[in-house]
Every structure is written in structure tokens, then in C-alpha cells.
Amino acid sequence: MPCVAERPACPLCHTAGSSLFCTAPQGDKLLDYYRCSECRLTFVAPAQLPTLAEEKAEYDLHCNDPQDAGYRAFLARLAAPLQALLPPAATGLDFGCGPGPTLSLMFREAGFSCADYDPLYANDPQLLTRNYDFISCTEVAEHFHQPGDSFALLQRLLRPGGVLGVMTRWLMADPQFERWHYRRDPSHVCFYKPATFEWIAARWDLVLHLPATDIALLQRP
Questions:
Q1: Coil/strand/helix, residue 214
Q2: What is the pLDDT of residues 203-212, one digit of tens each?
């Protein structure tokens, strides 16, 4: 067990002295995972985070086809409850759209305007200077190296009444964490519990909706 001075601050809530949760293999390396006692985030030790090149190499292996019915059904788990909270003609942003933008296409087909942003594949900084009625963030939050900064940015981009929709696998079974397939993706570095989203909602005065497992909707009053 590392000494207190070696324990990193939480990258979400910045509470000092997170506890070592476990050490687990990742390829040919061993990674240290820490757990924050305040917001319940589990995260990779900062010194062991992947480089941008390593992340992109992993992302480039993904094959997200906008015409794939199975992929669309997966994304609809977020799109459907999010659309139910939107006014007609709402405008949005798909944050972290990846190399094959699909969710924005689904929103446009449903009558909503939606732009694509991704720091690697669709990097238009101007999109981060506007405000939106909704922001979708599917299978992205687990990649955040500085989730506190990322969620602060996302909530600033919301108009009053706007909704941030997040889809990421929740960490529910601590004893199975080392064997969990979701952890084994080398680009996944942050893992959330429902309590973590409760903390996020309280921190930024958002209304939290949990319509289904792995889905969190955070709405500005």
C-alpha cells in the first residue's frame, strides 16, 4: 500500500489522498487503480495513463458503421430517453463522436440539429464556444483523463433546461473489477458508479435522471 503522500488526488472532484483500489494487469503492464472516497470514481494512476498516440491506436480498431442496425440499437438506449426530454427543433452536440459519427445522424433523422465534435476525428474548437439544448456523450466519459475539467466544460455548454446524456458502463461489482472486460480496454481509465453521477449532479446543480443501467441524463434547471 503506497504511503499517503503518494496517493493521487481524484481527477473528478480533486479530493486528496484517494485509496489504492487494486493493481491489475493491462497487456504486459500492471496498472494501479484508485478509488475516491468522496465521489466514488475509480481511476488509473495519473503516471500510468495512456499517451494520445496509444489511445488513437486503440480507437482506430473500432468499426462504428452508421448503417449497422445493432450499433444503432445500442446508441438508441441513450438517444430515446434523451429525446423524450427535448423541445421540438432542439440543437445539440455529439461530444466524442469518433471516426464514424452515428448518433448525430440519428438525432437529425428525428428532427433535431446535432453537430459532431471529437478531439481526434472532428476537432472544431468553435463548437465548444456555443451553447446547446442537448449534448450526447456515448462511451466517452471512461476515456477522460481529467473528468472534472471535462464535465465542467460540458455543463457550461448547456443552455438553461439543456440535457447532458452520458452512456458508460457503470462499475457495479467491485470484486469482479480485475476480470471485467470493460476495464481491459487500455483506453478506459475512469469508471463510474451511480453515486458518482449523483456527485456530478450535486456539484453543478443539475437534475439527475437514471432511465436505465449505464445511462445518466443530467439536466440544467
A1: coil
A2: 999 999 999 9
Q: Where are the domains of the chain?
A: 51-219
Would you say the pTM of this structure is higher than 0.85?
Answer: yes
User: What is the pairing mode between strands 42-44 and 29-35?
Assistant: antiparallel
User: pLDDT of 89-108, one tens digit each?
Assistant: 999 999 999 988 999 999 99
Nearest alpha-carbon partner for 159 in 68, 210, 93: 93
Domain spanning 51-219, CATH architecture: 3-Layer(aba) Sandwich (3.40)
Cell for 146?
A: 481529467
Distances (CA, A) of 71 to 52, 68, 108, 132: 26, 5, 17, 25
Strands, DSSP E only, in the chain? Answer: 19-26, 29-35, 42-44, 91-95, 113-117, 132-138, 158-167, 190-191, 207-212, 215-219
Q: Is 63 in contact with 44 (CB distance < 8 Å)? A: no
Q: How far is it, in rounded angstroms, from Cα 100 to Cα 174? A: 33
